[in-house]
């Protein structure tokens, strides 16, 4: 990873993880890769998600607990002519935020930790409330029938690409094209470009 794209600020990373609706869980068993998107919630160095007690995902996890987990937030597609007048395809790219995590996944067996994980997940996905707490006996059957899993994070890498490596002329050229296109995602991209340009100049 180019150091200029690397993000180490924990607050920025926490904010992205808190807002991300899902991540992609990458598994492997007997030299066969398998990936699946999952809703998740994180707390410090732990990621929780849930699913069925059976199925391919659980079979693979039981055979190999080593996993990777990725989160991506896409921003503007940058056409090649947005930053170059040479009529080459090479400058075409996309700006984005990404987090890549390596760790070990465990099946949560203890009821109170399962309740904690599902409570955190609901607080993220339905912050307005309007549901009984998971300590209510109405959930007993559901809790027993649901697999709750945790990833203990060993390594986390964050990469935000917003043209930080570009010279001032190409950087301003991209902003001009994005302003002309003027979609909502382009506006958000311009804001991120300026924020991370300023951060790298500090």
**From the 3D coordinates, which CATH architecture would you assign?**
Roll
What is the oligomeric state here? single chain
Largest sheet: 8 strands, antiparallel
* Structural class estimated from helices and strands: alpha+beta
Helix content class: 25-40%
The end-to-end distance, rounded to whole angstroms, is 20 Å
Number of helices: 6
CATH topology: Pnp Oxidase, Chain A
Detail the poorly predicted runs.
none
- SSE arrangement, N to C: EHEEEEHEEHHEHH
Overall morphology: elongated
DSSP, total strands: 8
Return the average pLDDT rounded to an integer. 96
What percentage of the residues does DSSP assign to strands (E)? 35-45%
Query: How many domains?
Result: 1
The CATH class name reads: Mainly Beta
Could you name the CATH homologous superfamily?
Electron Transport, Fmn-binding Protein, Chain A
**Whole-angstrom Rg:** 21 Å
Explained architecture:
This protein is an alpha+beta fold and 202 residues long. It has one domain: Roll (Pnp Oxidase, Chain A), CATH 2.30.110. The chain is 35% helix and 35% strand. It is built from 6 helices and 8 strands, in the order βαββββαββααβαα. α5 (168-181) runs antiparallel to α6. The relative contact order is 0.18. The mean pLDDT is 96.
Keywords for this structure?
35% strand; 8 strands; alpha+beta; elongated; eight-stranded antiparallel β-sheet; 202 residues; Pnp Oxidase, Chain A; 6 helices
Topology:
Elements: E1 6-7, H1 10-19, E2 23-29, E3 32-38, E4 41-43, E5 46-52, H2 56-63, E6 66-78, E7 93-108, H3 111-125, H4 140-144, E8 146-161, H5 168-181, H6 184-201
Antiparallel strand pairs: 1-8, 2-3, 2-6, 4-5, 5-8, 6-7, 7-8
Helix pairs in contact: 5-6
């Amino acid at each position: 990873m180019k150091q200029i794209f690397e993000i180490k600020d924990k607050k920025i990373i926490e904010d992205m993880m808190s807002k991300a609706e899902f991540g992609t869980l990458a598994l492997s068993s007997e030299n066969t890769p398998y990936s699946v998107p999952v809703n998740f919630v994180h707390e410090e160095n732990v990621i929780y998600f849930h699913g069925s007690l059976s199925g391919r995902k659980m079979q693979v996890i039981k055979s190999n607990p080593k996993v990777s987990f990725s989160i991506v937030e896409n921003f503007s597609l940058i056409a090649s002519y947005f930053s170059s007048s040479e009529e080459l395809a090479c400058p075409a790219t996309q700006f984005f935020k990404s987090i890549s995590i390596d760790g070990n996944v465990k099946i949560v067996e203890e009821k109170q930790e399962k309740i904690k994980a599902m409570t955190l997940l609901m607080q993220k996905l339905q912050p307005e409330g309007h549901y009984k707490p998971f300590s209510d006996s109405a959930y007993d059957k559901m809790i027993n029938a649901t697999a709750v899993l945790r990833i203990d994070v060993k390594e986390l890498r964050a990469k935000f690409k917003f043209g930080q490596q570009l010279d001032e002329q190409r950087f301003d050229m991209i902003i001009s094209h994005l302003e002309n296109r003027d979609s909502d995602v382009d506006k958000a991209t311009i804001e991120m470009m300026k924020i991370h340009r300023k951060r790298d100049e500090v």
